[in-house]
Amino acid sequence: xxxIKLTGFFxxxxxxxxxxxxxxxxxxxxxxxxxxxxxxxPEMLNPDYWIALQDDPDKVIMTPxxxxxxxxxxxxxxxxxxDYYGKSNPLKSQFATTETKGPVMNPLLPLNMPDTLPGxxxxxxxxxxxxxxYSRDFYDGRNAIYSDGMKKEVVDNMNIDAIxxxxxxxxxxxxTHANVRHYPTSxxxxxxxxxxxxxxxxxxxxxGNSVAIIHESVDGDFLYVESPVSRGWVDARxxxxxxxxxxxxxxxxxxxxxxxxxxxxVYGDASFKDFSRYFQFSATMPLIKHSSKAxxxxxxxxxxxxxxxxxxxxxxxDADVHIGYLPYTKSNVITQIFRLLNQPYGWADQxxxxxxxxxxxxxxxxxxxxxGRHPSFILSASDRQVFIDPSLSTEEKTAEVxxxxxxxxxxxxxxxxxLYIGKGDNGKLYFMHQAGWGYKDKDGTNLLVNRVTIxxxxxxxxxxxxxRVFTTLxx
Length: 475
Known about the structure:
The chain is an alpha+beta fold and 475 residues long.
């Protein structure tokens, strides 16, 4: 009898394994997309290829003075969202919601903010955030759905009852690469189970960004700040507090070092053994001196009482850095975007990665150009906009886009933004962008891209029909 039972159990296990295998095999296959996507020749993955195609790659597009004038226009710009070709403006949706949640179109100068602000302003913003939290389902890092109790814990930590009628601003500076969150928690709020898109994440802040501090969580772990690109909650450990004068002296130093590569390590000692932190793409630190032995920078840190302290930081002499911003030339734009080729995708810059707009924002910051957070905001930064008629045929759209200046032109809609890099020597047009999705191969296999890539506008991954707005970033 025991043998009969054992045999039956054996066949049951085999049946379950076969059933599971058939179920798994029925699911779509997935693999990494090739480095050169369809329509992209291997030589196109080298920046020199694209530089050689430019008529005058080293011509300065905007001087530092012109860039500051451009930035001032962006900070004060009033965007009028007109409909085009009988269709709703493709940038409209982001303007309707995101400014109330945190990210801003017009980059802020936190140190220029008034001493106080009405408490009702912050209460109104928090009310919208609370309403949004309860309006839909979210999943935490375990893929467990947020219960009402979990949501209440998040809301309680926002410390809404402690908001005074008149809020006195304090000021600080980011001393460690930081996330801006919609809520005072580092626990993710994924909107679905298939993708790790943390909807609680607003954006990221670079070392050296100044902030105005207007609120604090109940547990004291998070500060609610106004940063250059977004309002939101930041881990207090990443911010050092000081008065405006001290922060201006620190962040306004004209002699500074900028990260030209994806990220660069900073050390606390001249022998490069005491690792301190990573210095991210386009971030800046005041430069004390430069020699064949090291770049020595003035590195801010947070004292135990939260105040701003200063110490020397050491960066290897062969590190991918540049003294000051880079000259704004097509050659340099191409070189910089290629330094990010194949960098992995991160929604809203989560997990110390970047999304499509985060990539474009730091790319142009390498030249001192500062824009808002989202695709719609970057695409609205310049007056040099071309709206493509959606009723045109693919051939007609391609012909229209071919007339637009490449390399310094971004393109897209409110949902995605790319760099238009122009025409290859095969006569086809190309985009370069950070893409968080993939495409299907002929056999139905899902080919995941999820990285900074180049693609031909003829390929279905992101075709000429994707972008509706082309914006050239110059005066």
